[in-house]
C-alpha cells in the first residue's frame, strides 16, 4: 500500500470515528491518543495540512539541539488544535457556523465509501444524526425555523440509505434495527412540533413503520 493511500485511509478512519459520536459526546481517551500519535508522526497531518509546508525562519543563533523539541511542541500544538476543531465540527447543529463543514465531512465519508453497503450505513448514520439535531433544536429558543429543513434532510438520508442497503443486502436486519431506533427518537418529538413540522414527522414515521412491518 502506498504511503499516500495509507494516509488517506487514516484520515477516513478518524473522520468515521468522530462521526459516530452522539451530540454532546466526546472522543474517548484511546482515540484521542491515537490521533495525537498519528499527527505527531506525520502520518495524518500531510493529508490535512497545505501541500506546501510553511517554512519558518530560524531564530538567530538558535542552538541546533532545540529544533527537535520545537518540532515536537509544534506538532503537539497542531494535534491539539485539529482535535479541538474536529470535535467542535461534529458537535455543530443547524445554524452553527461550523455546521456546513460537518455536512461536507459527512458527504465526503459517503463519497469515499467503497461499496453500496458502506454508503448505506453512512447515510443511515447521517439520518440518526439529523434526528438528534432536531431534538437539540426543539430545546433551543431560536431553532424553530431550522427544524423543518433538518426533518427533510433526515428523510432524504433515510430513503437514500435504505435504497442502497436493500440493493446491497436484501432483507438485511439492519433495516429494522435502524427503523426501531428512529421511531424511538422521533416519536417523542411529535408533541413539540408545529403543525407543518408535525405533518413531516408523521409522514416520516409512516415510512419507518413500513420498514418495521413484517414482510
TrEMBL record:
Transmembrane segments: 69-90
Keywords: Membrane, Transmembrane, Transmembrane helix
Domain DUF5667: 92-189
Name assigned to this protein: DUF5667 domain-containing protein
Native source species: Nonomuraea mesophila
